[in-house]
Amino acid sequence: MSFIKSVEANSLAEELEIEVGDRLIAINGNPINDIIDYMFLINDESVVLEIEKKDGDIWEIEVDKDFDETLGVEFDNPIIDHARSCTNNCVFCFIDQLPKGMRESLYFKDDDSRLSFLQGNFVTLTNLKDADIDRIIRYRISPINVSVHTTDPELRKVMLNNRFAGHIMERLKKLIDGGIVVNAQIVLCPGYNDKAALERTLSDLMQFHPNLNSVAIVPIGLTQFREGLIEMKGFNKESALDTIERVHRFQKLALDKLDTRFAFLADEFYILAEQSFPEDAAYESYIQLEDGIGMIRKLTTEVSEVLNSKAFANKSYPKSLIVTGTAAGPFVKALCTDIMKHVPELKVDVATIVNRFFGERITVAGLLTGKDIKEQIKLILDQNRYDQVLLPSAMFRDSEEILLDDVTLEELSQFFSLPFIKVECTGYALIDNLTGGGKNV
Predict the structure, then answer these.
(1) Between 1.10.4100, 3.40.630, 3.90.1200, 3.40.50, what CATH number should domain 298-434 receive?
(2) What is the DSSP string of 167-179?
């Protein structure tokens, strides 16, 4: 139901006397079933709106406007519909590995192309009918992020536990031929879709470039809550190194044929293999940064740029404690050492948090909980005086200031009587906050 939650000041909706609690029923006679209908149909210079007022009256309003001018409203449900849940039972599903007692929204498995377009979520395309694909093409819902995992039809059926999962190449071709831009993801699972299977997948996906823009390759995440689930192996130094070598060979081939490396590996592979990260240029403007690909290299590059371009006053700066996960810990510590060499007045320590909530095999900062942070930095804060504690924005969802276990920034600040600050994962934001010029973001 498309009930209106808020109306922007001086907007078209305010001018038309559309109010909070009203419902948008149709545009030009077309029912508004979801946000995509609204976004597509509102883009016209002349529209007829059908509005149901709070008292049940139906208003029909003819509007002349700029082509891309929207009503200026926010709906009570961002997609004006129920999100489509996942019909798969993937062998690597992280949600299946969550413990009981977390907030209910974390257990919902979405597989909704609308959320892919609006929020960047990855979808498998298994629950779409041909009419759904036609609608994506007609409405130009692009780009879409697709969880491919493998292009081998039989292997994909096994990995997703879905008999309809084998049609991935046909689905991708229809989207690509329809002009839709796709970003692909592969969750790599040792013994399933790695090695030769990975090489086949990357080779198959190459044919869809450039509309298939890039491929992110991330390792399976394994928590300690896998009772009753199929046995899965994680990556170790040897298997991570094998993956790096295979993907680097493919990147050389792709660079020669497509003028792009096309496929990019998550930072965890290099950390596990104890290998240096590729140079800045190898990430090609960090087109898969949201998947944790190139985050440490980008942070390092940006810090270096700031330090080399900015003059720092000889003054007293706040003493900071940075909180991060075990994967990034050594790199953040080395980075902070370099920063303090450049700005000797700065005092920075790094607290590397072991993930006891999900298990020690989960090493990324984005999956740390408030409980683990509280317990593991308490002794540090008892023994040392700090002016602020910095937490990377990767620990939080979008603009929220709440961690996975519902612990908030405000709660941490009150518990320790110390400012806890959410910092964007960029070198510029890091330096800004370390030198006292940053704000909560």
Answers:
(1) 3.40.50
(2) GHHHHHHHHHHTT
Tell me the whole-structure pTM to 2 decimals.
Answer: 0.84
Q: How many CB atoms lie within 10 A of CB 369?
A: 20
Residue tagged 């689930």 (tokens) = 229
Ranges assigned E (strand) in 58-189: 58-64, 73-75, 122-123, 144-147, 182-188
What are the backbone angles phi and psi of residue 100, rounded to the nearest 5°?
Answer: -75, 160
User: In this structure, are strands 46-52 and 23-27 parallel, antiparallel, or unpaired?
Assistant: antiparallel
Q: Which long-range contacts (CB under 8 A, 24 or more apart) does 241-249 make?
A: 241/273, 241/275, 242/194, 242/195, 243/188, 243/194, 243/198, 243/217, 243/269, 244/269, 244/270, 244/273, 244/275, 246/195, 246/198, 246/199, 247/198, 247/202, 247/217
State the pLDDT at residue 388: 96
Give the chain's residues under pLDDT 70: 1, 78-85, 104-121, 314, 398, 437-441
Helix, strand or coil, per DSSP, at residue 31:
strand
Beta bridge partners of 50: 26, 60
Peptide bond into 210 cis (omega under 30): yes
Q: Determine contact, residues 437/318, Cβ cutoff 8 Å.
A: no
Q: Which two tokens stand for residue 207?
A: 């044919």
CATH of range 4-75; options 2.40.10.120, 3.40.980.10, 2.60.40.1570, 2.30.42.10: 2.30.42.10
DSSP structural state of residue 434: H
Residues in the chain: 441
